[in-house]
Amino acid sequence: MLQTRIIAPAEGAYQFPLLIKRLLMSGSRYEKTREIVYRDQLRYSYLTLNERIARLANVLTEAGVKAGDTVAVMDWDSHRYLECMFAIPMIGAVVHTINVRLSPEQILYTMNHADDRFVLVNSEFVGLYQAIAGQLTTVEKTILLTDGPEKTTELPGLVGEYEQLLAAASPHYDFPDFDENSVATTFYTTGTTGNPKGVYFTHRQLVLHTMGVATVTGSIDSIRLLGTDDVYMPITPMFHVHAWGIPYVATMLGLKQVYPGRYDPELLVKLWRDEKVSFSHCVPTILQMLLNAKGAQNEDFGGWKIIIGGSALNRALYEAAKARGIQLTAAYGMSETCPLVACAHLNEELLAGSEDECVTYRIKAGVPVPLVEAAIVDGDGRFLPADGEAQGELVLRAPWLTMGYYREEAKSEELWAGGWLHTGDVATLDSMGVIDIRDRIKDVIKTGGEWVSSLDLEDLISRHPAVREVAVVGIADPQWGERPFALLVVRDGASIDARVLKEHLKPFVELGHINKWAIPSQIALVTEIPKTSVGKLDKKRIRIDIVEWQASNSAFLSTL
User: Fold this and answer.
1) What's the pLDDT tens digit per position in 210-255?
2) Which CATH architecture has domain 213-441?
3) Which of 61, 266, 372, 517 sits at 20 to 30 Å (Cα–Cα) from 93?
4) Would you call 420 a catalytic residue per the annotation?
């Protein structure tokens, strides 16, 4: 074993644990009068934020919440959610951010599996909660969250209404020190099969992730995104990987923060304009929805910087946003990674190249952020060269990756096989360290003896001027094994069919970007493409729909 030198700390030296409370304490030092804004209904300063978090801690403690308990939150993006993200873990409990877009059966499963003891419920979800309350096995008490005048409702174990409880509570709380490896947050990620899986993160992990995000967004000049003068508004649900951890960063730096509640494209545009929002993050489908909003038409969004993650950023969306004044930056992560592990970066060599080459690298997954290690492996776990050509599964190491799935020993061992976290994504690494995600392992299409990336096809198809949205999946074919199948949403007043799409893709075959087997022989024209609960393309549902359409010879279909 390596012999290292260890020196005992001086007697009385303070052992400084990395706790979420340290992030909160920092923000009000910088800008005490900066505002936390909720929709067009409420605004208050950082001093008030700290006071409200102390009040909430008192409310929870008096209701019986103890260190180690799990407290669930069912709310839209709000000031209340921000307060919960601090107060709950700061008293030593675990905040469970419930994905309110899951089915009632899945929500019930996650709450029982997580051993939720206390639940904060937005009035919009009271009906859903009442429907499952009789089957909850561990919940003891609830607190009502509401924007409306009605402050009471029928909830089992109701303690009271959030604002009334806070108003009656003390504005002072002595938040204790404890082990930085204590679990702070948990939530559930859905896969293609089986029940949702619980991931969890400690105080130490969240503090380190916060520092990593702050560093990469604020210090790397080619992607300068976030500083203390920016105004932050999430367009990613706070139940989805703690809104990518950005609320912790924004609070630590004392940024003005704007929380939009339930997403309404028109309200998002209004809040951007009225509050002078300059930094956000979202998945591609949500950005597309926002750009198509009535209030966004003819709007110049100059100065708005947006991180795109969750799904691949294609060139067409990048160019469309750029034309409207938005600076898009691709980033990569997943629920299991807290989430940020890579962000687009242009080094001096790339900045000296053409604009087209710069765009190519701005829309890739990017370079691993500080403290992250990335590699690619083959099916036997052997490491592959970082030459930009070899494709394999992306595996990761970082101090903020989940250590496993809660109460899922076998799946946890599979996740961490060989001591690296397995992402399930096919990728390449090049000599500059750039990660290029080629596809999910389960979404790669094998046709004509060749591997076809559904992401590459989606990118190329999206460049046709008639295409507003696209999703590509592989479907079974008796001759070729699989064939690509494309779902298209067409822009208003435009038209396209399978033959027109073939002509659009042929030049990319001639240039060697794709092989001839990649051209779909059949497409479906639809008004909407199925999405998951967090706005990603739902390729599992798409495959089921296609089989049904083909069986019925649906009018949606267009065939070569």
Assistant:
1) 999 999 999 877 668 999 999 999 999 999 999 999 999 999 999 9
2) 3-Layer(aba) Sandwich (3.40)
3) 372
4) no
Largest CA distance in the chain: 79
66 as an active site residue: the answer is no
DSSP states of 389-405: S--EEEEEE-TTS--S-
Of 451, 482, 502, 540, which one is the catalytic site residue?
A: 451
CATH topology of domain 444-559: GMP Synthetase; Chain A, domain 3 (3.30.300)
Same fold, 21-201 and 213-441: yes
- Among residues 336, 393, 458, 469, the one annotated as catalytic is 336
The two structure tokens encoding residue 309: 């993650």
Q: Tell which residue, 258, 87, 80, 92, has the closest CA to residue 161.
A: 80
**Active-site residue among 48, 138, 153, 189?**
189
Task: Examine the residue annotation and report whether 336 is marked as an active-site residue of this protein.
Answer: yes
Query: Tens digits of per-residue pLDDT, 101-117?
Result: 999 999 999 999 999 99
Within 10 A of 56 (CB to CB), how many other CB atoms are there? Answer: 25
Contacts of 461 (CB under 8 A, 6+ apart): 467, 470, 472, 486, 488, 501, 504, 505
Active site residue 447: no
Domain ranges for the chain:
21-201, 213-441, 444-559
Among 3.40.50.12780, 2.30.30.240, 3.40.50.150, 3.30.420.40, name the CATH number for the domain at 21-201. Answer: 3.40.50.12780
First-residue to last-residue Cα distance in the chain = 65
